[in-house]
Write a sequence for this structure.
């Protein structure tokens, strides 16, 4: 149930070695896929059946995404792994690269083969330079020596090469088209879509971008079967998922649990709210997802559909837990600061709006705000979302809208009294 | 499923704001809207540039198959589909546009009262329609440091709205990528690489593209307001493209030049040379009134007196021997001026009239007419081109723009010159040869081509190849030209200046003929083709009748007693400035018609008559493709200056010549047009017209060059801002590393150069772009005026 997919090797002393990966059935799926080799469409059908949904934040069906690739058309195609994990509150891919890098390597080869791609790029955020970049590099070397990478892998006639790349440290390079631009050596400015990456990816050729965890889940799906994977989670929410629990909990950490597990249980795994205090709010999927009140979260299950219904999202699985000492205006200020700093500046609403939002929140936080400012903030967020080139517009507006939706009275308290209504913070 | 069963397959029907339109598949919403007069606000979109959809101003509401799009979509990049319904004025669309406008304005300084763009600002205009009366933004606005982009473009980057039109122009059109975005988010700034300016020959276009006052016209800055100027259509006076421009004037003073759209000629762009040279109209050395030499002094006189004196002098020489009179006229003079001068000269009995100031070799007297041999717009569709002695990027900037488009589309653009040039795209082949060897290189290409097309041995070619076999590079050039569906073979300025230019022209014609390619021949000047049509050449009259006068080159080599010089400075504008001046200084009578008076003129002239400069004279230019473009006089001539056509007309009357009673330039134009239309297509000399003997070469250290981009004529040489760009200023004689080593010259050394006359001291450059034993030293730069022929032997000494 727990640690069955991406963290399968975690029980070993050195979970990252090829030997330990073998012990958990490593590269068996690859051998099975390459034996024949298996029909590409069959692999995609298996992934669809498993309802493996994108683990990067959007939760889009992986099988369907793969289906967009012109897999049998001639010419170079690329598989891109998005290891630019930058969403605040999220640290699962780093763990994965650190402790089970071979799951990613095997996943890359199988996924690449399924889409007709012979080259895979793993794009890591700049901060991974020191660590775990070397770890995944080492895994790639091991896999190449074992004959899993290169030409004519295991005599199957299938070619695949994998390269790890390091970004320069920009949140926007995690946006898939910004990432593609960055790989091409340009500024990481997101592109307009269409064309989608499956038509025009990198160097004018088709490419598909998947999250690290998504790709690392693929070998298990292929080894244990779509039915097994689906059964781990819930209908339309197959498999297990990595959750990064941080904030006011007793034992923060990354947990691999079946999708659909009640939040209450996950909170328990993280040791509960610190000092036995009352749960006030939870950001359920990285800071770009709207925060939800604690009471509401305690009733929710951790899967894509349940959280969407609650007007938030599972996102990247980065949970930020906040107790009753938390000043939600301050939370809003901190989050808005991040998006203000990370906007690429390409399109108007985000370039101008993120800074404006941040300044208005700051004014309120400093006790100089007015009721008009609260309305202005709400308006500015609405003016950004839905008007930008990429989803960064939503990522910057949703958290503000979410906090305003549930904690507007805290903003009004600042306006009335010039200070926070939360005692511990005041 | 088509909305209309009659509709062709490549057409779709869309509805914009309730009205149905048919348009081609693949078009974007904004293209259909623009074509049908539906206004959609925009900033970043420009029809000539790629669309990044970054301003988000053109968001519109879209419905497809009865389903509304979840978000408003940018009209500039959204492709139309059959049955698409677009609403540009729905509540959601207008609210999206207003919201974007609010964001654009929060950090814009709104300093319209002190902004040059005020009154012609896209942001100002759209803010009126989409902005709020009162801003909700109470924070401090962003302030951005300015950069020095050079003498042409002024910056006020705080006003920038980051539309990136300027960035994309320099990437996509100018090909220099000199601007880019730095930093990110709210701190994004448009800037250059550290400390560099914009040096593209098309840089001024970013001013027109900038939708706000971030990039403005530096020389024009703070001198007028958009609404107080009158705009007059005219034509660029510096190259054979004839870019369509507008002069903006206030009370007779030209304030600035902007492009006029003409897809067949310059599209929407103009070269900096056409944009900024107007400053030369107001140069300090404008001649205010007619002056005549009186012993050692110069005497001002009125027009009547001056013209009578000129008529008397000309009559006197003509009475003795009319062939002792020679007229040199600028290739940028108007068709009407050139035609009347031609008539004056022939009326006096002399055929010695010529516009080919820079043509060193006139052995091919009946050489092909100047021109491109094909429509300018069609050059962007060629599959291959060979440019001989032409740095097209500087000689004819907008022709280069078309060829660049072709090159980027995969055409083989190739060049042969005495050096590699600084192109703004990659050429397929760039052959470099010593000036003496250019004819041989062409002959080898021709030989390779003859073999490739199965023509066998071409008579006369052996004299140029000396029996050598074509190399792989010659074969490649030959095959690409032959295999091309459409090709252009063109000679340029450096061929005009070449002492063996007649051979090069004949060989170029041969290559064009063998390849079935268009054949072009473009020198300097806005109206060289016009000069030929007007009969301002020694070997043909305006009616096409043959004549046997003397060319500029011949009247320099065999000096005349009397010269008529129209709108040129021989020390800069003739192929051999030193010899030209010597001829003038030795003459008995020199009559100069010029807007300017220089120290040199005071030395050789007897009478100097002030004529209208560019912008002050009505007339016609004929461009490279043979397009007659007529324009009106706009500016009030300085002082007592008069348009040259009027002066020639009165002079004609004073000389009692027939049919000189013109009342307006259009009468002259009509008369000449009649003559031209009766002639049919004049035949070209081509290979058959090649010189009897090949030119042998200098066999020593040779000066080679062309005419510097901002040194082509008196007007541009007085364009103060242009003269401060890196393309102007002091000449830098350039040598190949091997030649430099031989002569003991290092990069940056001061050297003294002479061509048999006085020497000049200049700083040398060493560059491996040069052929060996060649000194690259263009004309029209500081320090070159005293030197001899642009192509000819030269001596170098280290100092």
């Amino acid at each position: 149930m727990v640690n069955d997919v991406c963290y399968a090797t975690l029980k070993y002393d050195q979970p990252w070695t090829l030997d330990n990966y073998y012990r958990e059935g490593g590269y068996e799926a690859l051998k099975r896929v390459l034996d024949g080799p298996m029909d590409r469409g069959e692999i995609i059908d298996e992934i669809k059946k498993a309802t493996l949904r994108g683990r990067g934040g959007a939760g889009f069906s992986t099988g369907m995404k793969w289906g967009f690739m012109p897999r049998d058309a001639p010419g170079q195609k690329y598989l891109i792994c998005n290891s630019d994990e930058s969403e605040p509150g999220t640290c699962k891919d780093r763990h994965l690269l650190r402790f089970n890098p071979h799951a990613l390597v095997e996943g890359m080869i199988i996924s690449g083969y399924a889409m007709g791609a012979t080259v895979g790029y793993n794009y890591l955020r700049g901060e991974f330079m020191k660590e775990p970049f070397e770890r995944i590099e080492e895994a790639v070397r091991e896999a190449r020596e074992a004959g899993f990478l290169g030409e004519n892998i295991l005599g199957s006639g299938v070619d695949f090469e994998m390269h790890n790349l390091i970004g320069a440290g920009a949140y926007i390079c995690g946006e898939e088209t910004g990432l593609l631009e960055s790989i091409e050596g340009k500024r990481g400015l997101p592109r307009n879509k269409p064309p989608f990456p499956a038509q025009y990816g990198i160097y004018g050729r088709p490419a598909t971008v998947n999250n690290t965890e998504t790709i690392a889940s693929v070998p298990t799906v292929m080894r244990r079967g779509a039915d097994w994977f689906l059964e781990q989670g819930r209908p339309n929410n197959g498999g297990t998922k990595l959750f990064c629990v941080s904030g006011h909990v007793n034992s923060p950490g990354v947990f691999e649990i079946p999708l659909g597990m009640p939040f209450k249980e996950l909170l328990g795994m993280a040791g509960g709210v610190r000092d036995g205090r009352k749960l006030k709010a939870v950001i359920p999927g990285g800071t770009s997802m709207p925060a939800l009140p604690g009471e509401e979260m305690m009733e929710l299950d951790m899967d894509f559909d349940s959280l969407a219904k609650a007007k938030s999202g599972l996102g990247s699985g980065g949970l930020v837990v906040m107790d009753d000492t938390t000043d939600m205006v301050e939370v809003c200020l901190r989050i808005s600061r991040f998006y203000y700093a990370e906007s690429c500046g390409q399109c108007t609403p985000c370039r101008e709006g993120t800074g404006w939002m941040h300044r208005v929140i700051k004014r309120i936080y400093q006790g100089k705000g007015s009721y008009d400012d609260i309305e202005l903030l709400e308006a500015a967020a609405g003016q950004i979302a839905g008007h930008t080139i990429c989803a960064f517009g939503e990522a910057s507006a949703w958290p503000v809208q979410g906090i305003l939706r549930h904690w507007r009275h805290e903003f009004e308290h600042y306006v009335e009294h010039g200070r926070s209504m939360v005692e511990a913070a005041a | 499923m088509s909305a209309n069963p009659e509709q062709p397959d490549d057409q779709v029907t869309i509805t914009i704001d309730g009205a149905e339109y048919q348009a081609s598949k693949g078009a974007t919403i904004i293209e259909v809207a623009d074509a049908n007069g539906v206004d959609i606000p925009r900033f970043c979109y420009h029809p000539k540039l790629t669309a990044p959809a970054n301003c988000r101003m053109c968001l519109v509401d879209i419905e497809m198959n009865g389903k509304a799009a979840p978000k408003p979509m940018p009209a500039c990049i959204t492709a139309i589909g059959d049955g698409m319904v677009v609403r540009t004025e729905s509540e959601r669309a207008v609210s999206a546009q207003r919201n974007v406008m609010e964001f654009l304005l929060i950090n814009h300084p709104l300093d319209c009262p002190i902004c040059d763009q005020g009154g012609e600002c896209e942001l100002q205009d759209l803010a009126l329609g989409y902005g709020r009366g009162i801003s909700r933004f109470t924070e401090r606005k962003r302030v951005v440091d300015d950069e020095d982009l050079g003498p042409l473009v002024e910056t006020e980057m705080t006003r920038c709205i980051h539309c990136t039109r300027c960035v994309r122009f320099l990437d996509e059109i100018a090909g220099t990528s000199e601007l880019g975005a730095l930093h990110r988010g709210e701190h994004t700034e448009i800037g250059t690489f550290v400390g560099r300016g914009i040096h593209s020959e098309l840089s001024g276009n970013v001013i027109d593209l900038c939708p706000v006052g971030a990039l403005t016209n530096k020389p024009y800055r703070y001198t007028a307001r958009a609404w107080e100027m009158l705009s007059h259509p005219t034509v660029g006076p510096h190259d054979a493209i004839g870019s369509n421009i507008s002069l903006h004037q206030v009370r007779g003073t030209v304030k600035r030049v902007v492009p006029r759209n003409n897809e067949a000629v310059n599209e929407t762009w103009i070269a900096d040379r056409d944009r900024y040279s107007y400053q030369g109209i107001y140069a300090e050395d404008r001649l205010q009134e007619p002056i005549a030499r009186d012993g050692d002094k110069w005497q001002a006189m009125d027009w009547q007196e001056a013209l009578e004196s000129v008529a008397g002098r000309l009559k006197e020489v003509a009475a003795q021997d009319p062939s002792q009179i020679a007229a040199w006229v600028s290739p940028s003079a108007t068709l009407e001026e050139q035609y009347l001068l031609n008539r004056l000269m022939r009326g006096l009995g002399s055929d010695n009239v010529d516009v080919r100031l820079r043509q060193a070799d006139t052995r091919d007297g009946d050489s092909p007419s100047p021109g491109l041999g094909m429509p300018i717009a069609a050059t962007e569709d060629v599959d291959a081109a060979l440019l001989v002695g032409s740095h097209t990027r500087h000689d004819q900037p907008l022709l280069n723009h078309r060829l660049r488009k072709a090159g980027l589309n995969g055409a083989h653009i190739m060049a042969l010159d005495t050096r590699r040039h600084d192109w703004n795209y990659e050429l397929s082949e760039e052959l470099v040869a010593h000036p003496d060897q250019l004819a041989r290189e062409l002959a080898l290409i021709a030989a390779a081509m003859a073999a490739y097309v199965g023509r066998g041995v071409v008579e006369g070619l052996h004299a140029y190849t000396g029996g050598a076999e074509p190399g792989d590079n010659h074969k490649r050039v030959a095959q690409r030209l032959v295999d091309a569906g459409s090709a252009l073979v063109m000679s340029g300025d450096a061929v005009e200046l070449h002492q063996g230019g007649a051979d090069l022209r004949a060989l170029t014609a041969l290559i064009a003929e063998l390849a079935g390619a268009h054949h072009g021949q473009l020198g300097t000047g806005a109206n060289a083709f016009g000069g030929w049509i007007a009969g301002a050449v020694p070997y043909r009259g305006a009616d096409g009748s043959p004549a046997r006068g003397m060319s500029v080159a011949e009247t320099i080599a065999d000096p005349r007693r009397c010269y008529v010089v129209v709108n040129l400075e021989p020390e800069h504008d003739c192929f051999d400035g030193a010899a030209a001046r010597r001829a003038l200084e030795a003459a008995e009578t020199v009559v100069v018609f010029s807007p300017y008076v220089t120290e040199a003129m005071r030395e050789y002239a007897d009478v100097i008559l002030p004529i209208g400069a560019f912008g002050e004279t009505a007339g016609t230019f004929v461009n490279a493709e043979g397009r007659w473009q007529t324009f009106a006089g706009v500016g009030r001539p300085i002082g007592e200056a008069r348009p040259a056509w009027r002066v020639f007309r009165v002079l004609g009357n004073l000389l009692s010549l027939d049919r000189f009673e013109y009342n307006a330039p259009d009468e002259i134009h009509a008369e000449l047009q009649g003559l031209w239309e009766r002639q049919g297509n004049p035949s070209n000399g081509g290979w058959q017209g090649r010189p009897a003997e090949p030119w042998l070469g200098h066999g020593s250290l040779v000066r080679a060059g062309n005419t510097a981009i901002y040194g082509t004529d008196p007007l541009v040489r007085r364009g103060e801002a242009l003269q401060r760009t890196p393309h102007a200023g002091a000449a830098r004689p350039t040598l190949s590393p091997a030649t430099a080593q031989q002569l003991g010259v290092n990069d940056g050394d001061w050297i003294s150069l002479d061509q048999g006359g006085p020497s000049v001291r200049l700083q040398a450059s060493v560059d491996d772009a040069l052929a060996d034993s060649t000194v690259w030293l263009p004309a029209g730069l500081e320090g070159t005026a005293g030197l001899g022929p642009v192509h000819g032997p030269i001596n170098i000494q280290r100092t």
